[in-house]
Design goal:
This protein is an alpha+beta fold and 179 residues long. It contains four helices and nine strands; from the N terminus they run ββββββαβαβαβα. Helix content is 27%, strand content 23%.
């Protein structure tokens, strides 16, 4: 029996990602530092000291800074090869048409994105519940889950958006049918 559990819910969209916490006391809240009601833009950028778009190496890691969300979108307008504006759309597409970053590959960008998120949380989750859009292929889902597992975070449940909406509907209207 778990005496305390803090669950991080991640709801993926093609352009935004929403986050929220819940615990066993049934208290829940959306992360306060989100920059808008739609969630965090699924954008990620790496600013290099000379704004170079050359691939990162161990020798060139000094002085980089990482941007995500709205700050990344703003930076990527001037430096489109230093990240991805919609990282989830291109995570498993490695052909030139979808490849946006020349600094690192898409899987590494996604792993760095989670690293940024998890280090900026007020509380670390004991587990994660993930909701994917129905349009995500099995390969896209597995790539996202692999990047989350890199941080030894327990993924408790994986659903798609239709399952999540059904659960929300049932929870919202359950009391109506209880006599």
């Amino acid at each position: 029996l778990v005496a305390w559990e803090k669950i991080l819910g991640i709801d993926f969209g093609s352009q935004y990602i929403k986050y929220g916490f819940a615990d066993l006391d049934t208290s829940e809240y959306i992360l306060e530092d989100l920059d808008n009601k739609y969630g965090v833009p699924a954008s990620f950028a790496i600013k290099t000291p000379k704004n170079s778009d050359a691939p990162l190496t161990n020798e060139t890691l000094d002085g980089i800074s990482i941007k995500y969300g709205k700050k990344a979108i703003k930076y990527l307008r001037k430096h489109p090869h230093n990240g991805a504006e919609f990282i989830l759309n291109s995570v498993v597409r490695n052909d030139p048409e979808f490849r946006t970053s020349t600094v690192v590959n898409q899987s590494t960008l996604l792993t760095l994105y989670w690293g940024q998120l998890l280090t900026h949380l007020r509380e670390q989750p004991s587990s994660i519940v993930v909701s994917f859009p129905s349009l995500f292929t099995p390969l896209m889902r597995q790539t996202v889950l692999n990047s989350l597992r890199f941080f030894n975070t327990r993924v408790k449940s994986v659903t798609d958006d239709l399952q999540a909406l059904s659960a929300l509907y049932a929870d919202s209207y359950l009391n109506r049918y209880i006599s």
